[in-house]
Amino acid sequence: MSRWSGERGESLGRAFFARDIHQVARDLLGREIWFGNRGARLVEVEVYEGANDAASHARSGRPTGRTWPMFAEPGRVYVYRIYGMHRCLNLRAPSGVGAGAILVRAAQPLSGFEPEVHRRRRLSGPGLLCKTMGIDERLSGAWVGQGLVLREGEPVAEERVVTRPRVGLNEARCQEATHWPWRYIIEDSPWISRR
């Protein structure tokens, strides 16, 4: 089971995020994410670190007007737009090189969604998840708990958690970072974004 436990409905505070980024990523699986009246169970996340990670927005080692939440205190939210149209939700946690955030890739709908969301797997992928839940850049920089809430949910047994290489990266630009097993998934979940 997860190394972090509490009551199912309890909100995760800053202390949850103030641990090694890989521990936080693993422990996010099974937690509940709530935005407004919509709630979902996290089933897939990916780690992105700082200057050591060619796939990361923090690879320069310096914060920008957009990326500063990756360098901020643990528990901040980082939302950015990719390809000019899709939003991606990230949660700040510290890494061995300082900067870092965890991309929320997929979730299982729990409450507040239309039947089509279940039928068409509209939370399976970071862009779909943000669009379906109504998450955008206005949330970037906020603390977890200020609009976006994470709850204990149901921690996942170790035997159900696997790591895989991150997906959707440009291998020419990211090189060896393309192969790092920094994608954490609940292996038997039908809601993960890619097999």
UniProtKB/TrEMBL annotation:
Homology family: Belongs to the DNA glycosylase MPG family.
GO MF assignments: alkylbase DNA N-glycosylase activity; DNA binding
Annotated keywords: DNA damage, DNA repair, Glycosidase, Hydrolase
Organism: Lujinxingia litoralis
Domain of life of the source: Bacteria
SUPFAM superfamilies: FMT C-terminal domain-like (SSF50486)
Uppermost EC category: hydrolase
Official protein name in the record: Putative 3-methyladenine DNA glycosylase
Keyword Magnesium recorded: no
